[in-house]
Amino acid sequence: MDSKREKDQDADHEKITAVLLKSRTGEFDLESILFLKLRNLGIHDLGCTGECINLERLDLSGNNITNLAPLASLRLLSVLNLSNNRVSNLEPLRTCDILQNLNVAGNIISSIENLHCLVSLRKLENIRLKDNTYNYTNPVCRNSSYRAVVLEMFPNIKVLDGERVVGRGSDLYQLCKDIDDTIKAGLYKNGQLVEHSDCKPWVEDSYWEIKRSNNAIIEEAYKQFNDVLHECRLLNNRATHVISQTERSMSLKKQPKQYAI
Predict the structure, then answer these.
(1) What keywords appear on the UniProt entry (predicted)?
(2) Which of 105, 123, 135, 189 could tie 131 with a disulfide, CB 3.0–4.6 Å?
């Protein structure tokens, strides 16, 4: 009986229904749902998901989804995780105007043309088509020019496949990527790096030096901080001395009095 009930529940999860959404979120109205996580449920039909018109974050990873049509009405969606599904067509996402973060790693997106429908999404800044951690990818990622083309298509993108391409941290990502490329190119022989006369360092010699600011306000703040730190150390030493004296005094009072006979 229990096994039959479990099978019936699994069958219900193959299609997203109002009952499933309400039981998962505790919301009575679908329009009240803002965040939704339906991972690894064997879902292949998005059903009434499109009725959650105020949905902002949606996680559908690890299912069997192929058709994204119901998502076209989610105009407030900002984060969408569709990793590890069977999606090949992203066209319905064209109307998700404020989408910022899209994860479609581990699907069957075959060509760059499949991404053209996302170009109009001006707020899209984080796209993931492959994920090395879980070994998720798409056929389009096999294209040697895939990364360069995607960056050209989406000039506002900040993070591609988990790597920051602009802004703070992008230099470090690029440096690590260059190191990886060097290793993969087989420049090591018998554990030693083969030197080339045309090799140049990745960064300038002064790149790692900590430079003091000439800003007078910063210098004054730095001086005041050191003064406060010095005072704290003095107070700590005084407190330690007082505590030590108090403990010594209390230990003497607890000792039994001895009388000489």
Answers:
(1) Leucine-rich repeat, Repeat
(2) 105
190-212 pLDDT per residue, tens: 656 566 666 677 667 666 665 65
Amino acid at 167: G
For position 185, what pLDDT does the model report? 62
How many separate domains does the chain show?
2
| CATH number of the domain within which 84 lies | 3.80.10.10
Instruction: Specify which residues 189 forms β-bridges with.
Output: 192
Continuous H helices in 95-200 = 146-153, 170-184
DSSP-derived 3-state class of residue 81: strand
Reported pTM = 0.64
- Give the pair of three-digit tokens for residue 111: 């060509």
Backbone angles phi, psi at 214, to 5 degrees: -90, 0
Q: What is the CA radius of gyration of the chain?
A: 30
Domain presence at residue 164: yes
- Is there a contact between 116 and 153 (Cβ–Cβ < 8 Å)? yes
The range of the structural domain enclosing residue 226 comes to: 218-249
Distance of CA 128 to the CA centre of its chain: 10
Q: Which of 78, 76, 80 shows the shortest CA–CA distance to 68?
A: 80
**Angle (CA) 245 249 253, round 5°:** 170
